[in-house]
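2024-03-11 09:14:02 INFO queue: dequeued item Cellulose biosynthesis protein BcsE, len=513
2024-03-11 09:14:02 INFO validating residues
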Amino acid sequence: MKNSFALGLLQVQPELTALQTPGCYWVTCARQEDARTFIRQAVMAQQSVTLISADEKPRDLLTPDPAEGPNRIPLFSLSKSKNSLLRLETDFLRTLSSKSGLVIFNSSAAQWDKLNEAELTDWIKRMRRVLNKKQLTLLMVTSGATIINLRNNLQRYFRQLDGVAHLAFQQDSWQYRINWWYDADRLLADRAIRLVCKDDRFYAETENEKQEPLSLNDEQHYLADKIVLEGAPPLSRQWQLFDDNEQVFFRAQQANAATVIFSLTRSDYIGELAKMVHSLRRARGNGLKIVVREMGTSLRYSDERLLMACGVTAIVPASAAMSRFLTTLEAVQGQVFNRRVPASLDALTAALQPLQEKGYLRLDAFCQAVAQLISNTLLPENDKGLLVALRPVPQLKPQQILTLCKPRRFGDLVTVLDDRVILFLSSCRYNDLDKALKFIFSLSHDELFANRMVWFEDSQILAEINNIKNLTPVALQDITSAPQPTQIAAAPVEVRERQTPQPITLLPEGTTR
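2024-03-11 09:14:37 INFO prediction written
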């Protein structure tokens, strides 16, 4: 076998971009726009290529015209049905030949979700036989918010697929993660390359960040807000205590590998703390151990994610005793921070914080907001929130339920569909659902609802949102406005016909008319 094609990624080792003939390679992307850029760059690197698309139209993928690449590109569209995907092998046999060059197949993750495990295995094996017979190289590029399901399934096809990789957007750059990749007789596996995009092309980024501290002279030093020791004096000569977090921050700007300990006493301080942590991590490198001790119950789940993304090494909850806090400090010694911290804090905050909406939304706006949040690649997969459908008891109507529903957190949304109340609880875990419902409804939810259904995986939530869109198109266009949660529905006032006054004569007592 020989390497006859390449992905076109710039400044990347040739053996990690080579495509052998015959061969079958699969690249997954969380975002459709990243898949589009990846495909266009691959097309520009070829002398001969065939493009098949089961997602957007193939002509749209090549608009505007690529600056380089072949003058003539055969374009084919594939419907999004399951049967068309299963018959693709027959189409290859009938239409393509060894002169077709590299074949790029663009598809959505939702289409592959229609195949079960046995069908996917059979499809890959049949396609592999066709590629060997026709001496073709197939590059499949699949994108979509539910890509995690396909990524997990592809791990089983090490012998059938010549390469599997994933392209993930990380706010200011992209991570190109290679599970495995065959280059002639060599196998390369478990590689990660950081990419940047310029002029509609992906380049390997030159790593110029501090990965190691310049000095380890302060590795045993502790710089802390004095409140974290609960009134105790410095524990040793290596400890320096300061009156507040700002003084800790200024001193830490000269540290290289020290342990920096911030306190968190109230929730409205999280933004300021995130700025300090982000600045230290970007300026002082990965040697610092940055610890946050929660002194009062202040942190939400989304706030924890923000602080960790900004560069915090560990967070000690308010419920942890002093002994547990000191054990955590001991555990982080010797660690080097190895996660990526994006350069733009504003963009990072906007991406990780919940939706800036709460309460009742029209059904169409509700679906749009939930789909947008689930598609956020910076939030953890299958841990973005809960979609809950609640059916009221027979004595109550959904509109009456809304008067008792008062979401207080941004990202907690509610709408009505037929006889159900639908909630989306951002950054809420399944085991916290009962607690969340208790805070949202002014009466016990057990007395308000006859039953409930819960979706917590990204694919489940998106599938249900799509079901709502597909099954109730009229409701999305002509939905009646429901009362806001803070409004009380007034009883209808009966309108009576105005009566004409009649004169009445009052007679003295004992007198008859």
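2024-03-11 09:14:37 INFO annotate: The two ends are 123 Å apart (CA to CA).
2024-03-11 09:14:38 INFO item closed
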